[in-house]
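I trust your eye. Have a critical look at both lines of this record:
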Amino acid sequence: MRRPRQIQQVDKLETFLYAFAYLMESDLTQPDQRPGSLGKAALALTLLLPAPTVGVLCAMYLFPDTALGKGIYYCAKAWLLALPAVWLVFVDRGRLAIPKFHWHGMAAGIVTGLLTLGVIVGVWELFAYRMIDIAFFRGQMQEIGLGTKLNFLVFASAITLINALLEEYVWRWFVYIKWRDTLGNLFKGPAKAIVIPGAIALAGLFFVLHHAVAMNLYFDWPAVVLASVGIFIGHVTWSIIYLKYRNIYAAYLSHIFADIGVFVVGYQIAFG
């Protein structure tokens, strides 16, 4: 007897999700591994996830150009960076260690990074430039001290080389792990197949959120939506690289190329 189409579609989705989990070689695909405590994982996410958005809201919307706004922003940034390390040591009882560099997956990082860079610049040249009020953007750049080429390049270098690595540490490692532990406790049996893609997607949504809030101050909503979709795709790409190759540096390398693409476009807007 032929099964109903709806059941066939569910089976196909389940097969795809399990194939994805196997491809990622996640800890949850191993029978002797169990997700961490639901309560601890949920608490970690509750404490961490609001921080970057609160910092952006205070610095750019609620208390702009004030010591209070800047203070809250930098405190939120420090909290975002410190909490994963503190949590690892004092709650998860783990050991802090700098990941050992290796070349596994670096080719994937280069290829995906170059493709991302090309897409960013290509989309800008093809149609995205029509979405930006260039005069307004240049005025905003002047106000925040990035109106000179030197200042812009120093800022771009810091974001590309330092901030990108910190984002990999926070979002592709800690936030993903805590969403994985949360979903791993909530979904059992066949539904367990959604844990890995679900954790990647939820981490990605929160990764996009504070970027979108910041971009909304400079761009109209079509540009914000377009950029947010690109950021989410970047997050998924870097998450897959990290999980597949267990190499944070491969994901970081791909991220660097993406940021270079962003700042190539930014340079064209500001000084082109």
The first helix runs from residue 5 to 24. The mean pLDDT is 90. Residues 92 and 171 are 17 Å apart (CA to CA).
